[in-house]
TrEMBL record:
Top EC class for this record: transferase
GO terms classed as biological process: fatty acid biosynthetic process
Phylogenetic lineage: Bacteria, Bacillati, Bacillota, Bacilli, Lactobacillales
Annotated ranges, domain Beta-ketoacyl-[acyl-carrier-protein] synthase III C-terminal: 234-322
EC number: 2.3.1.180
HAMAP family on file: FabH (MF_01815)
Pathway: Lipid metabolism; fatty acid biosynthesis
The name this protein goes by in its record: Beta-ketoacyl-[acyl-carrier-protein] synthase III
Subunit structure: Homodimer.
Pfam family, one: ACP_syn_III_C
Function: Catalyzes the condensation reaction of fatty acid synthesis by the addition to an acyl acceptor of two carbons from malonyl-ACP. Catalyzes the first condensation reaction which initiates fatty acid synthesis and may therefore play a role in governing the total rate of fatty acid production. Possesses both acetoacetyl-ACP synthase and acetyl transacylase activities. Its substrate specificity determines the biosynthesis of branched-chain and/or straight-chain of fatty acids.
Organism encoding this protein: Periweissella cryptocerci
Amino acid sequence: ARGLRIQASAHYVPNRVVKNAELTQLMDTSDEWIQTRTGIRQRHVVIDENTSDLALHVATDLLGQSGLSAHRLDFIIVATMSPDYQTPSVAAQVQGELGATNAFAFDINAACSGFEYALKIANDLINSGSQRGIVIGAEVLSKLVDWHDRTTAVLFGDGAGGVLVEGVESNSRVLATDLATFGASGQKLTAGKMANGNAFGANQQAQPFFQMDGRAIYSFAVRQVPASIELTVAKANLMLADIDKFVLHQANGRIIERVAKGMDIAAIKFPTNVANYGNTSAASVPILFDELVKTGQITRGDTIALAGFGGGLTVGTIIIKY
Ligand code: ACO
C-alpha cells in the first residue's frame, strides 16, 4: 500500500536568546516561578526576521539534506498561527523564495496542533497521488505577546521545524491519526483578534495579544491528550508499550509529566526541550522531532506518537513508523 515516509527533518530558531532573568526587568516575575511552573529557562525571539524567514531556513535545509531541487516538490504546507500576512500565506512566500514552481502552497491554522493537522493533510495528499512535499510548523509568537503581561509572556517563543515527506509503495509509515476540535471552548485561548471595522458602522477593537485561561488549558490538555493518544494507538492496533517515543507539543513541562504519569508510561519516553525554546506552538513538535533524530534518540523503524494540543481548542495525534 502507498504511504507517507518522512525523508528528512530540520529546524531553525532565531539567534537572540531571552533568559528568564531578562524578563524580570520587564515584569514582576522570577526565574524560580517560571521554572517550577513551566520548566522553561529561555526562549528564542526574532529581531529582524519574520515567520516566512524561519520557514524558509527549514525548507532550504530540507532540500539540501535530500539533494532535491525545489521543482521536485508537489506541495508546501505551513502550519502557523502567526503568519507575516493574511495573504500571501507563509507557504506561498516560501514557495516563491525557493522557486518551487511545481508546488501548490497554503497555510493551515490549528494553533499548537497545527503540525499534526498539516501532516494528516500531507498524508491524505500523498495517498491521493502527490509524490513529495514539505510540511513546516513556523511561528513568531513574540509578536502576539504583551511583553509586560507576566501571565502569558513567560510562556512563548519563536522558531520553526519541518519535514520533507514522500510517497513510498511499501507499508504506510503513518499508522493512524486522530484530529479533534473543541470549538465551544475556543475563547479559553485567543490571540490576534483583528479590528473589525468598515464604512458602515462596524467597529470592533483589535486584541493582538494572547489572552488565556491557563488553568482551563491545563485541564483540557491533561484530559484530552491522553484520550487522543489512546484512541490513535488503538486505531493502529498497537499497545501504548509499542510506542518508542511520545513527541508532545512543548507547552509546559508539567503538562507533559502529568500526561506521562496519567498513562503510566516512563517519563524517559516523553522527551522535552521546552526549557530551551518555551512554547513555539506549531513549531514545537517538529523542532523536538528533528533534535531527537539528529541526536540518534529517534532512529529508522521506531514507532513515534506525535501529539499537539492548544488553541481552537484543538488536539491531534499522528502515529508514524519512522
Ligand atoms: N511570574 C510570577 N507570578 C506569576 C506569573 C509569573 N509569570 N504568572 C502568574 N503569576 C502569579 C499569579 O498572579 C498567581 O498569583 P495569586 O495566587 O496571587 O493570584 C499565582 O502566580 C498563580 O497563578 P496561576 O495562574 O494560578 O498559576 P498556575 O499554577 O495555574 O500556572 C500556567 C500558570 C503556568 C500558565 C499554567 O496554568 C499552565 O501551564 N497552563 C497551560 C497554559 C498553556 O500551555 N497554554 C498554551 C496552550 S498552547 C497554544 O495553543 C498557544
